[in-house]
Known about the structure:
Blueprint: E1 3-6, H1 14-20, E2 26-29, H2 32-35, E3 44-47, H3 54-58, E4 65-68, E5 87-89, H4 96-111, H5 114-123, E6 138-142, H6 146-157, E7 161-165, E8 177-179, H7 184-188, E9 193-196, H8 210-215, E10 221-224, H9 233-241, E11 247-250, E12 270-272, H10 283-300, E13 309-311
Parallel strand pairs: 1-2, 1-3, 3-4, 4-5, 6-7, 6-9, 7-8, 9-10, 10-11, 11-12
Antiparallel strand pairs: 5-13
Helix pairs in contact: 4-6
Amino acid sequence: MPILVMDHGVHIDAAAVRKAFPNEIVRDAKDAAGAVGQCEDCDIVVTMAHDLTDDLIARMPRLRYICAMSAGTDKVDTLKGLKPDVLVTSARGIHGPQMSELAFLSMISLSREFPRMQRNQARHVWERWPQRLLWGKTAVLVGIGPIAEDLAVRCVAFGMRVIGISDARKEAPHFDKMLPRTRLEEAAAEADFMVVLVPLSAQTRHMINASVFRAMKNTGILINLARGPVVDEKELIKALQEGRIGGAALDVFEVEPPAPDNPLWDMPNVIVTPRIGGMSDVYTEQVLPLVVHNLRCFLDGRLAEMKNVVRG
C-alpha cells in the first residue's frame, strides 16, 4: 500500500516513516500541489488535516486511510469527494505541553501587561506598576480533553483555581469543579482567564458569544486555542472596544489570517499569534510513535487496535 507523507517538513520526517516501513512505498510532498503526479496509487496519506483539499482527494481514488497529525479533523468533514469508508485517525493527546505553554504565555503576558513593557522599552520609558499574579486566580477551561488535563496540572502548580466546562465529564483530576455547557455563563462570571479548547462543531460554533462576554468580569481575559468560529469574533471585538472584558489572546480566527483592517491586530490588550498553539520544536518526536503505531495496525489489518479513530 503506497503511503503519501504530505508535510512542509515541520511536523514529520518522511525519512523516519520510510525507516519504520522499509517494505512499503513511501512518497513525500510538501503540499497538495506537490503531491500531484505521485498520489494517484496511494492508499494512505499522512498529513495535517487542514492541508487536505478536495482536489487532492479527487486525485486519490484508492485512498483508504487518512492519518492526520493534527488533533482537530473538522476539515475532513468539509471534503466533498471523500468516500464514506475512508478511515481517519487524529493525533489527539500529544499537544498538551505546547498548548499549555502558549496558554501560560498569554496569561502571564496579559495579566502583567507585558506588551506595555515592550512598548515602553521601544520608547526608552522606565515605568513601574503593581504586577497582577496568576496565584489565586481562576481559570475556566472550556472543553475537557488531554490538553485541558495537562493545562490544569500547570494551573494548580501556579496556585490557581480551575473550573472545567464539559457535558461529557463530571470530574477530572486537578479541577476544582466541573460544570455543563448550560452553566457556561455562570463559570464565565468567575473567570479571570477563560481558555477555549473545545472542538469546532455545529454545537460549539459561536458558543463564546455576547452573553458570555456580558457575564465575564471587566478584567477577565479570553484565550482561544481551539478554532476561530467557536468564538463570535464580532461580539468579542465589541466587548473589547467597550471595555467589558480585560483582554484576549487569540491563536485562531474566523478568517485566517485576519484581514489587515481587523481591529484585533491593533488593540493594546490583545495578543495575536499565527495558529502556533499545536506546534513545537519536537513535533516529530511527539507524533511519530502514534503515526507508526496506527500505520502498522492498518497495514496489518488490526483496525481495532488503532488509536484516535474519528471516522470509519
